[in-house]
Amino acid sequence: MKFILGKKIGMSQVFVDDEKEREVIPVTLVEAGPCIVTKIITKENDGYKGVQIGFSEKKKINKPLVGHLKDLGKFRYIKEFRTEKSDKEYKLGDKVDISVFEAGDEVKVIGVSKAKGFQGVMKRHGFKGGPASHGQKHSNRKGGSIGSAFPEHVIKGKKMAGRMGGEQVTQLGLKIVSIDKDKNLLLIKGSVPGNIGGLIKVVTR
Questions:
Q1: Which of 64, 71, 149, 152 makes a 20 to 30 Å CA pair with 181?
Q2: Is 112 helix (H, G, I), strand (E, B) or coil?
């Protein structure tokens, strides 16, 4: 399994010359790595196998992290990835960069979606709303009855207004269009979740 941490830079487009015509592919630019292996997770000590890596340097970190990282560096983000070959392929202090990926690799991207604050049912869940006339007043965007007749209480999981976004999202079926090793850039086809500058995980399926 290939994995890396990165930062979303923004979107652009790539022109690919086909035999018949020139194709335009929308891509997301991701500044990926380099990351440092900060811990080897073993089944004997932790109950599962994996690798912990750090990404993006930070000026100050708290004392527990200083003791954990020792002389490996000061990282803003520390995340784990499960892999059965953690103790065979990786060692403490190893560098993980985009050289592990290749153009054409199918990946899944994990990030935190944009937070949109408190939203109504039409934007949050796609409700069509009520009629705009025939006695309606200030209620054309409401969600309607939430259970006053039967079963006389609000059912758990009822779609209602509330906070929207700001949740972890996994985008599947994405492909790496190209790699720029000099600038540590991954060009991933399509859009990926999160704000510009947000942390994302890139993992091969």
A1: 71
A2: strand
